[in-house]
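Quick check before the chapter quiz. The format below is the same one you will see on the exam, so make sure you can read both the input and the output lines.
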Amino acid sequence: MDRPRVLLVSYLFPPCGGVGVQRALAMARYMPDAGVDVSVLTAQDPISQHGLDPDLERMVPPGIQVCHSSAWEPPRALRDRVKQAVNGDRGGGTPAKGAPQRPSLLRRMVKTAAERILFPDTQLLWVKPSVHEAARIIREQKVGAVVLTAPPFSLLFMAIELRKLFPKLRIVLDIRDEWLGYHLPELDGTASPWKRAEAGRLEKAAVQASDVVVTVTPPWVESLVRRYPDQPASKFVCIPNGYDADTLKDFHRAPLPVPPMIVGYMGTVYANPVYSPASYLDALEAMPEEWRSRVQTRIIGRVAGNAAHLLANRAVDVVQTGFLPQVEAFQKLTECHCLLLIIGNPTVHSGKLFEYLAMGIPILAITPPDGEVSRIMRETRAGWTVAAEDRQGIQDAIRNLYAVASGAQAPIEQDRQAVEFYDRRSLAASMVRATGIV
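Here is the expected output.
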């Protein structure tokens, strides 16, 4: 008997690097172990990629069929320039310092036109033509289920269109970022009332078109259940992010001698309050020089244009590596004594949290004490959790972490069994079972 086949649709996929590909890559790698064959549909040249990582492409099993579709999309430089002109920012979602509160009439007109033509995002220019490619794969390969992993949120259109074409197809909508309650207010602060209203209508139609809606944290599941009381609560499923044990098995802690204590941050640095490192850097900078000189902060990843000023002219030691392929980034992490995680929203967790956990290196998490990250930190006994506004608490955590790094204090003992729950291999099996794919 033939095994069921799933089509995984992800805008980003190797050789693209960065955090945006990890969940889709893990599904492609490990769903076959749970009894399904996998085909992938991805973009030929995605404009939102921040770097290439050929090592990730080599991790795709040879039996996975990867199909690419292309569409006209504006080059990244042009897109960022238009965004800057429209929003008055410097490459991110946060307005530039000193930007006028009310933009000019021309800027408002340009913004309104761009927002309506490219709703909900520029990836619409890839999604719309890709519906036909997805339909071809479904017919030719006898696909029984489709998993659409978003963002980009324009993939919600694909759920609606595929339902029209294939009434019996099982459609799983995998929402990595909760759109209406988190992404729009926190990360897309310039969105107009029109865009917010249209987003609500699009999400509702996509939820109705889907058989199962997956998201990554329990609070996000609860918000979707409340938002759609006409849908059965069982339709909404939580499958958290995780780590890839196979990828990390060859990396072992090799911290450099102290001082300095190396505090590592992996990923993109943003100015947005949810992810901004300002509270950590301000707390460290306010410590006496004897302490500042003992700490080096290592940024392993890119720095968004509107966040560069957060690192500039600091009286602390900050080393920036820029974007690195995953293998090199993990190697840099092994040299660190502590890993920095910044999440300013209580409903959110970050994919890097689980890779941090798997590395077994103490974590300093600057995050709400009643939030998802704090819950997982307590569950795994992974380090210190401090609120962003608690400067003294951040400084005390730095001192405690230094004591651990220098051997003056006992090492942190993680609950490894709790950490292993987040192994992506078992999470992929949970995805297959919980969504009814088999």
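If your answer matched, good. Residues 89-100 have pLDDT under 50 and may be disordered.
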